[in-house]
Amino acid sequence: MINKIVASLDASVADIPDGSTIMIGGFGTAGMPSALVDALIRQGARDLTIVGNNAGNAEIGLAALLKARRARKIICSFPRQTDSYVFDALYRAGDIELELVPQGNLAERIRAAGAGIGAFFTPTGYGTPLAEGKETRLIDGRNYVLEYPLHADYALIKADRGDRWGNLVYRKTARNFGPIMASAARCSIAQVREVVPLGALDPEIIVTPGIFVQRVVAIRDDAVRAVAGAAA
Amino acid sequence: MKRFTRDQMAARVARDIQEGAYVNLGIGLPTLVANHLPKGREIFLHSENGLLGMGPAPAQGEEDFDLINAGKQPVTLLPGGAYFHHADSFAMMRGGHLDICVLGAFQVSATGDLANWHTGAPDAIPAVGGAMDLAIGAKRVFVMMEHQTRSGESKIVPRCTYPLTGVACVTRVFTDLAVIDITPAGMRVAEMVEGLPFDELQRMTAVPLLPPVAALGAA
C-alpha cells in the first residue's frame, strides 16, 4: 500500500543533507510552511540554498532559518519587507548571497523545471540590471531574455488537505508557489492541516496531483497571524 | 499653485478604467484607485499572489491571513472571484491578458522607460517583486506619481538615471499637475490641473512636451 503520510514533522525532513537547494513556499506568511521550516532548523542542515518569494518575516519560519545561519544563498524576488530585519542584517554584513529574480521569472523558472523545459525566452527584465550578462534575442519584433529553470532537491510547501497518495488542495491565496514548487523538486514535502481518506478530495478540484508530492505530514493549523506590511 | 491631491489623482486614473477591464493596481499610491472605481462598473482586480476579483478590505475582526493582496494586507474575494498559482498569475501579466496596470514610479523617460524598483543607493536592499512583469505585460501601463521630487526635480526625464524596470513600456502618466501620453511623436499633454499655463508645466518638466490637442487651435 502506498502511503506518503509521514508520522512527524521531524521524520519528514530527517534526510535533508547539508548543501541542499530547498524551495520554500509562501508569499509573505500566506502559504509559508512554518512547521516544516521549524523542523528543518531542529534537523540542523546547513549551507543551504533557499528559493522562495521573500526572505522571511520577523523571526519566524524562513527568517528563523536565516537567523540560525543555515543558508548561504537565497534566490527570491522581494527580500525587503517591513519586518525582514534578519535578512537585512545578514545581507548588509555580507553573510548571505542574494540572487534577485523578477517574480514572474522566478515562478516561470520553477514551473519550467517541473515541466522539463531546458530554458525559455521571457520579455520580463529586458534592458534592466537584472538581465545584465544574459543572452537576449529579438523574436517577432520583441526583445527577450534567456532564463534557465530552477530545480530543487527539496520543496517545503503548505497545503490545506492531502491524502496518502499525495494529492493536495490549498486554501485561498496560500496556494501561491505551492503547486509549481511541488513539481520542481526531487522530493516535495507538504504540511497539511488535514489528512483525508483516498477519494475524499473531489478529483475535479485536486490542485496538485500526488505524482508531484513525495511526503505529506499533518499538523495543526499554524497559520501565522502577523501582517508583514507593505511589500510585494 | 493648485495641484491634484492624491485622491484626485486616483479618481482621475479611475475614470480611464472601463467596464470589464482586468486591472492590476500596484503597491502604494495606485492602491488608492480602488476607492474611486465607480460603483456599478464591473472591473476585475488582479493581485499577483493569485487572485482575480479582489474585493475591499474585510471588516475588523474578519481578516483571513490566507487571503491577502500583493502588499500582504488582508482583502476579500468578490462572488465570481478565483484563486490560482503563481505561474498562472504571471502568465496573466506576461501573456498580455491584463488590460491595465497602474504603477508608481521614481522616473519615467521621454520614450516611456520606467524606473520604479530601486534607487541604486549602495546601502539599499534591492527588491523587485512583480514590477518588471507588470511593466512589460499589461496592454496599457499607467504611471501615477508626483510630477516633481520633494526637492523640485522633474520625475519625467530624458533618460532614467535610476535602474530600469522596463523599456518603452509606459502608456500614460498621471501626475499631480497633468495627464501626459507617451506617443510616437513625443510626450503629449492630455490634461492639466486647472489654471496651470502650458508654459509653466513645461518649465517644471525636463522633457519637451507637446501641448494638448484642443489647445492647438487656440495657440
How are the SSEs placed, and which strands pair?
The complex is a heterodimer of chains A (232) and B (219).
Chain A: H1 9-12, E1 21-24, H2 34-43, E2 48-51, H3 62-67, E3 71-76, H4 85-92, E4 97-100, H5 103-115, E5 120-122, E6 136-139, E7 142-147, E8 152-162, E9 168-169, H6 178-184, E10 185-195, E11 215-218
Parallel strand pairs in A: 1-2, 1-8, 2-3, 3-4, 8-10, 10-11
Antiparallel strand pairs in A: 5-7, 6-7, 8-9
Helix pairs in contact in A: 5-6
Chain B: H1 6-15, E1 22-25, E2 44-47, E3 51-55, E4 76-83, H2 86-94, E5 100-103, E6 107-109, E7 114-115, H3 131-137, E8 140-144, E9 156-157, E10 172-174, E11 178-183, E12 186-192, H4 198-203, E13 209-210, H5 213-216
Parallel strand pairs in B: 1-2, 1-5, 5-8, 6-9, 8-10, 12-13
Antiparallel strand pairs in B: 2-3, 3-4, 6-7, 10-11, 11-12
Give an overview of the whole structure:
The complex is a heterodimer of chains A (232) and B (219). With 232 residues, chain A is α/β, with parallel strands linked by helices. Chain A has a single domain, classed as Glutaconate Coenzyme A-transferase, CATH 3.40.1080. Chain A is 21% helix and 25% strand. Chain A has 6 helices and 11 strands. Chain A has helices spanning 9-12, 34-43, 62-67, 85-92, 103-115, 178-184, and strands at 21-24, 48-51, 71-76, 97-100, 120-122, 136-139, 142-147, 152-162, 168-169, 185-195, 215-218. In chain A, the strands form 2 sheets. In chain A, strands 1, 2, 3, 4, 8, 9, 10 and 11 form an 8-stranded mixed sheet that branches. In chain A, helix 5 packs across helix 6. Chain B is of the alpha/beta class and 219 residues long. Chain B has one domain (6-218): Glutaconate Coenzyme A-transferase (3-Layer(aba) Sandwich), CATH 3.40.1080. Chain B is 16% helix and 25% strand. Chain B has a 10-stranded mixed sheet with strand order 4-3-2-1-5-8-10-11-12-13, with helices on both faces. In chain B, helix 2 (86-94) crosses helix 3. The longest helix of chain B has 10 residues, at 6-15. The chains are: A alpha/beta (232), B alpha/beta (219). At the A-B interface, helix 4, helix 5 and helix 6 of A face helix 2 and helix 3 of B.
